[in-house]
Design a protein that fits this description.
Strands 9-6-12-2-3-11-10 form a 7-stranded antiparallel β-sheet. The two termini are about 40 Å apart. α8 packs across α9, α11 runs parallel beside α12 and α16 runs parallel beside α19. The longest helix is centred in the middle third of the chain and has 13 residues. Helices cover about 30% and strands about 25% of the residues. The protein has 22 helices and 27 strands.
Length: about 600
């Protein structure tokens, strides 16, 4: 039996609420109570939407604001199942944790840190009875392990809404040990503690990583089965993650750490707010040098970042010995690493320490930008000019083979693709609600998004016999990501329907045609789940076509391109189901 999935999903619905009342919880926290018919089940444009549900203590909803004040122009499009973030130049979004959901009175409570900056805090400061607010979500809820003896609740002021809700509602019967850093003592709140619970308030500047790390290390570590939850400024949480994972050996399924805000985006945080950052730029029209990226990549690959993190104050010579690089090599890297704040202290006699950029590189997600699959795609673009001339994919020119062939023979690379597709589960309501599933008893799966398809079918109560296409990808990797393996028949066979989930995204047109031809041998109905246009919320939307081209030699395939591939392989397109965030499910029928 696979381990319990970490999250349960919810339908994504655009909702309108209005302000009912506003009051100050503390001098540092303002509570806005919202209500409206959209918190219950409602119909808009002929579509019936379910009532608002946010069962998790740290659920997040996305508030929609507008820099120019025209919120209606910033709203996303509501699909029958899901949201499409259409382009909107002045859209601002911020994620917030519901402090309380009162279904009886039809109210939603949101808490905002009072710091005088940021669009959401500014909105809350001017909020008056009757003012409207639009939001989407939550898309998922954290599932806590069922048997726990204790839980750590760690954070700064932005985490107080989630911590307060956990203590009010007690989603599990476990002793709570609470640690909160606050700007000053006036931010301390009365919380619903029980016998055996502990609470520690630490006065520190927002985003003070050293203070948070020291406070967490000072907490007594309880015996028994535990779970650690933490939310604060993203970089401030990095040493906390390393301590709990490396030194306290908490497994990944007993740890949930989320960066609620980023220091660069504002002088002070917003409660549970995470801004949608734009892509960096020089602002003077020059194209940034690629050298810092290449040097940061080398520092990660050589273990330099980890070595400095593990041994603050290490000398350049000791570092060279530690990572196995001769002194001149380290001397070549250090000036650029220091200039871009990966390390600091190279010339102060105190040895080397991580700078703010280096601390960010301790996060697994940040590392992937330099060492993972996306980094390899970026490097492949050094072959862009000849690829455009030859009609080949840049990946093929760089690697000597197609990305699909690389994936087929590299379980680690395929595992990266599977992890990249995990977010797909939040978009599949439209697919699992489609009538095509009526009477379906067996389903053939292929592609790295298969695990998300299985999870979505399970959430929708649809449980066909599942099969995975052999010789398509490392099946053992996929098996490790799919829940309920007792329902999986790992030998391919005829099926009522086949779902290819992000299987075309790493195939050339020729390879995609071969896959679709093979699917036609096993089923009369197939579904292709792919991204067909850029995600309107992504800061890298302008790069989407080029990234797709780097992988496959084709731009991001829209509906017309997918239909052409299908026709070439003996399929007709029956319909296209919009899933949101630029993704679509194309339903095919064999000609």
């Amino acid at each position: 039996m696979a381990s319990q999935r970490a999250y349960s999903t919810h339908p994504l619905v655009l909702r309108r609420v209005t302000v009912r009342r506003v009051h100050e919880v503390t001098p540092r926290m303002r509570r806005v109570v919202l209500g409206g018919e959209d918190l219950g089940a409602f119909t808009r444009d002929g579509i019936l939407h379910p009532a608002f549900a946010a069962p998790g203590f740290d659920d997040h909803i996305k508030l929609i604001l507008a820099a120019d004040g025209d919120v209606h122009a910033a709203l996303p499009a509501q699909l029958p199942h899901g949201i499409e973030w259409t382009p909107a130049e002045h859209r601002l979004t911020r994620d917030y944790t519901p402090r309380r959901v009162d279904h009886q009175d039809g109210e939603l409570h949101l808490d905002f840190v009072v710091h005088g900056e940021g669009p959401a805090e500014a909105w809350s400061a001017s909020a008056r009875e009757g003012d409207e607010l639009w939001f989407v979500g939550p898309k998922s809820s954290l599932r806590l392990p069922e048997q726990l003896d204790w839980v750590f609740l760690i954070g700064d002021e932005t985490a107080l809404p989630a911590i307060g809700r956990f203590l009010d509602e007690r989603p599990l019967d476990a002793t709570a040990h609470v640690l909160v850093t606050v700007t000053d003592e006036s931010a301390c709140q009365e919380l619903a503690l029980r016998d055996g619970d502990t609470i520690t308030w630490v006065v520190a500047e927002p985003g003070d990583a050293a203070a948070l790390d020291a406070a967490v290390r000072a907490l007594p570590f309880p015996a028994g089965e535990g779970f650690a939850w933490a939310a604060a400024e993203s970089r401030a949480l990095l040493p906390v993650r390393r301590y709990l994972q490396r030194e306290r050996k908490l497994p990944k399924d007993r740890l949930n750490i989320t960066g609620y805000w980023h220091r660069e985006e504002a002088a002070a945080p917003e409660a549970a707010g995470t801004a949608d950052a734009g892509a960096p730029g020089t602002g003077d029209g020059r194209i940034p040098s690629p050298l810092p990226w290449l040097v940061a990549r080398a520092a990660l690959q050589l273990g330099i970042v980890d070595a400095v993190a593990d041994t603050p104050g290490i000398s350049a010579g000791a570092l060279a010995t530690r990572v196995g690089v001769p002194g001149p090599g380290i001397d070549v890297l250090l000036p650029l690493l220091a200039a871009h704040h990966v390390v600091v202290g190279a010339d102060d006699g105190a040895g080397l320490r991580l700078g703010p950029a280096g601390e960010e590189l301790l996060d697994d997600h940040e590392r992937e930008e330099y060492t993972g699959h996306e980094a390899e795609l970026l490097l492949a673009l050094t072959h862009l000019a000849p690829a455009l001339q030859d009609g080949a994919s840049p990946w093929r020119l760089a690697a000597g083979t197609t990305l699909h062939n690389s994936v087929t023979h590299d379980a680690e690379l395929f595992g990266e693709l599977v992890e990249e597709c995990e977010q797909l589960v939040f978009l599949l309501d439209g697919l699992t609600a489609d009538p095509l599933w009526e009477g379906v008893e067996s389903c053939l799966l292929t592609g790295p998004g298969s695990a998300s398809v299985v999870a979505a079918l399970d959430d929708a109560g649809r449980r066909p016999r599942l099969r995975v296409m052999e010789n398509d990808s490392p099946a053992t990797v996929l098996r490790g990501h799919i829940p309920a393996p007792e329902r999986i028949d790992w030998t391919a066979g005829p099926a009522d329907v086949a779902v290819a989930a992000k299987a075309l995204a790493y195939r050339t047109d020729q390879e995609a045609t071969l896959l679709l031809t093979r699917l036609a041998e096993w089923t009369r109905t197939a579904v292709l789940v792919e991204s067909s246009r850029p995600d309107g919320l992504s800061p890298q939307a302008a790069e989407a076509a080029l990234r797709a081209y780097a992988a496959t030699g084709s731009p991001l395939r829209d509906s017309a391109a997918i239909a052409a591939l299908a026709k070439r392989s003996g399929w007709d397109v029956e319909r296209t189901v919009a899933l949101g965030w630029g993704s679509e499910a194309t339903v095919l029928h064999r000609i």
